[in-house]
């Protein structure tokens, strides 16, 4: 591949169009060394690897504007590759915002966990400073310092018509887009955030708080109150509902101290348990779909309570919701780890395919790989992403699929005074037996789309093709009419208009047991691609498990030493250039409108 991250990657708009074309044509990679099998010795055998990616299927893209107008339009602002250790991505944004922000300091330690949900969600009427150095007013949610802003200044005329965005503008501003193949958010107390802090990889990235948790009920999108302040300021809930909700959330934080309240329902679903708690239907809907974010049909009571507690415990650490999103997209995360690896001599090779694993017949261990030049690379351990394994190697493996859609729209699914919102919405199943759909809407200040547009990701476990799974949800939330079509219903005018969309199915190889790959030698470890969950816990657990199997006495991702203090065995330390020759291309700088109104939240360790 010529990009970082595999199925975790992010693309500019033109890059995504090239990726779509490649997947639709199912291009095979030609062997540059056709006689590589002659390089295998008599006491060796080979396990062939795939030379094309077969994890993506049913790719369909649609343009809801005049594509002819974009035929002669070129992408603006194409930049040459950066020299080694030049700034790119979030690092460039940090320098751009440096003059407008105060130094990041942890002026107050993080609040300790408490049985009161208010302690997890800015309950008091005072200002607290999050670990990213931003001071928030608990009652209003407005940031008191330029660091980690989550709200833009209100627009002068919130009811004004959205700007008309054309397809040719999207193509021209294609480098403003950073479109993720997989859509996830980071729980503020999740395993990935802890790992980024522990390993110091967090210094290579910046994050933005998700500003809203939404719900879809009775045909309308509503904002869900998360913190105590949100609950008691909410106009959607009656006073009785507010007390009932706070009482239930407090119970979820302390559920281990009150086993008698849920033990009789452990064999029943969480939805049935909620029905016994005197909660109104609207409260049950909020808790099930927007706080616990679990399945109504098959989530157990205990799993639902634990999911609710996880949501509450993540509140207030960096902002008013439990979630963070990395500026420039999820594809920044694997690049950040590559940067840290490069600092200490690691090499990440782009456009460099591998033909096969070379196995010693006597020991049964893998001893080397052969690349497409016929070069033999020896090692003691080999970690292979599942998509590289051929069908003959995976004949006993049964894969799940993920349905994905990416939309570019002209306005938010829930308009407010601020246009700069990062929202998450969990859509209940359209039909019984269908999965719920996770919808993440990103604004331009996340550096993932151009100004006056929104990037919307939809994800769910597959039951059919991605378009069949997700288009009913898209039709409920968005207007799919083209500019040339006459809109006949007023509600279609009010909905955000989809400008461009792509649907595809992605393989979910998480949860596959190692014994399923019975043909692989013991020193070959298989890692999966992305899963359908909202967070990244599965990938972090898998990486740590593989590392501990290889190096049981070593610490996983310890705090790295200062590179200047590292003593190398060789006379000359390895050139820093070697690790960053394949550094990702520069990202576009934030526009004045984006840079001045939104600051990135830095993830910093606790004091």
TrEMBL record:
PANTHER family: CHM, RAB ESCORT PROTEIN 1, RAB GDP-DISSOCIATION INHIBITOR
Compartment annotation: Cytoplasm, Cytosol
Principal location: cytoplasm
One GO BP: intracellular protein transport
One Pfam assignment: RAE1_2_domI_C
Alphabetized UniProt keyword annotations: Cytoplasm, GTPase activation, Transferase
Compositionally biased tracts (Acidic residues): 566-579
Gene Ontology MF terms: GDP-dissociation inhibitor activity; GTPase activator activity; transferase activity
Annotated InterPro entries: FAD/NAD-bd_sf, GDP_dissociation_inhibitor, Rab_escort, RAE1_2_domI_C
Gene: Chml
Bias-annotated ranges (Polar residues): 126-138
Protein's name according to its UniProt entry: RAE2 geranylgeranyltransferase
Region: Disordered, residue numbers: 74-165, 554-607
Sequence ranges assigned to domain RAE1/2 in this UniProt record: 402-532
Domain of life: Eukaryota
Family statement: Belongs to the Rab GDI family.
Cellular compartments per GO CC: cytosol; nucleus; Rab-protein geranylgeranyltransferase complex
Entry keyword annotation includes GTP-binding: no
């Amino acid at each position: 591949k010529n990009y970082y991250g595999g199925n975790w990657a992010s693309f500019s708009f033109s890059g995504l169009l090239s990726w779509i074309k490649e997947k639709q044509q199912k291009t095979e990679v030609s062997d540059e060394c056709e006689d590589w099998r002659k390089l295998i010795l008599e006491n060796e055998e080979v396990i062939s690897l795939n030379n094309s990616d077969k994890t993506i299927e049913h790719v369909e893209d649609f343009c809801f504007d005049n594509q002819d107008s974009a035929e002669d339009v070129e992408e603006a602002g194409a930049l040459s590759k950066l020299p080694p250790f030049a700034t790119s991505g979030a690092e460039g944004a940090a320098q751009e915002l440096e003059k407008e922000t105060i130094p990041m300091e942890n002026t107050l330690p993080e609040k300790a966990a408490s049985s009161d949900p208010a302690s997890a969600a800015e309950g008091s009427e005072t200002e607290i400073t999050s670990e990213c150095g931003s001071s928030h007013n608990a009652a209003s949610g407005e940031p008191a310092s330029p660091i980690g802003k989550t709200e833009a200044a209100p627009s002068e005329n919130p009811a004004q018509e959205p700007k008309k965005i054309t397809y040719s503008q999207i193509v021209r501003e294609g480098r403003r887009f950073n479109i993720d193949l997989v859509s996830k958010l980071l729980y503020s107390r999740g395993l990935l955030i802890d790992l980024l802090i522990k390993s110091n990889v967090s210094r290579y990235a910046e994050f933005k708080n998700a500003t809203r948790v939404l719900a879809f009920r009775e045909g309308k999108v509503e904002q869900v109150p998360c913190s105590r302040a949100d609950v008691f300021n909410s106009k959607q809930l009656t006073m009785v509902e507010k007390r009932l909700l706070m009482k239930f959330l407090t119970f979820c934080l302390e559920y281990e101290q009150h086993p008698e309240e849920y033990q009789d329902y452990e064999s029943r679903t969480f939805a049935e348990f909620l029905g016994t708690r005197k909660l109104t239907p609207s409260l049950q809907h909020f808790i099930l779909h927007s706080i616990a974010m679990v399945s109504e049909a098959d989530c157990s009571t205990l799993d639902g309570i634990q999911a609710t507690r996880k949501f509450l415990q993540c509140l207030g650490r960096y902002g008013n919701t439990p979630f963070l999103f990395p500026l420039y997209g999820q594809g920044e995360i694997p690049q950040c780890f590559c940067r840290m690896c490069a600092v200490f001599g690691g090499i990440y090779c782009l456009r460099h395919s591998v033909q096969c694993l070379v196995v010693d017949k006597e020991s049964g261990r893998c001893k080397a790989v052969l690349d497409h030049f016929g070069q033999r690379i020896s090692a003691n351990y080999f970690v292979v992403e599942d998509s590289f394994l051929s069908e003959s190697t995976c004949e006993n493996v049964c894969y799940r699929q993920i349905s994905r859609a990416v939309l570019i729209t002209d306005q938010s699914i829930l308009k407010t005074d601020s246009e700069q919102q990062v929202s998450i919405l969990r859509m209940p199943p359209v039909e019984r037996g269908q999965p719920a759909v996770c919808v993440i809407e990103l604004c331009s200040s996340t550096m993932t789309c151009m100004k006056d547009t929104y990037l919307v990701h939809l994800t769910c476990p597959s039951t059919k093709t991605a378009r069949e799974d997700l288009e009913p949800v898209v039709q409920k939330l968005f207007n799919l009419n083209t500019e040339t079509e006459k809109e006949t219903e007023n509600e279609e005018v009010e909905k955000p208009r989809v400008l461009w969309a792509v649907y595809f199915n992605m393989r979910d190889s998480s949860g596959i047991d190692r014994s399923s790959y019975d043909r692989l030698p013991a020193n070959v470890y298989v890692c999966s691609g992305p899963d359908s969950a909202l967070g990244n816990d599965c990938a972090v657990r898998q990486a740590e498990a593989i590392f501990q199997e290889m190096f049981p006495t070593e610490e996983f991702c310890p705090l790295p030493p200062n590179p200047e203090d590292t003593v190398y065995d060789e006379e000359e330390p390895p050139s820093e250039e070697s690790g960053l020759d394949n550094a990702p291309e520069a990202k576009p700088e934030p526009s004045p409108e984006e840079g001045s109104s939104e600051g990135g939240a830095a993830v910093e360790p606790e004091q």
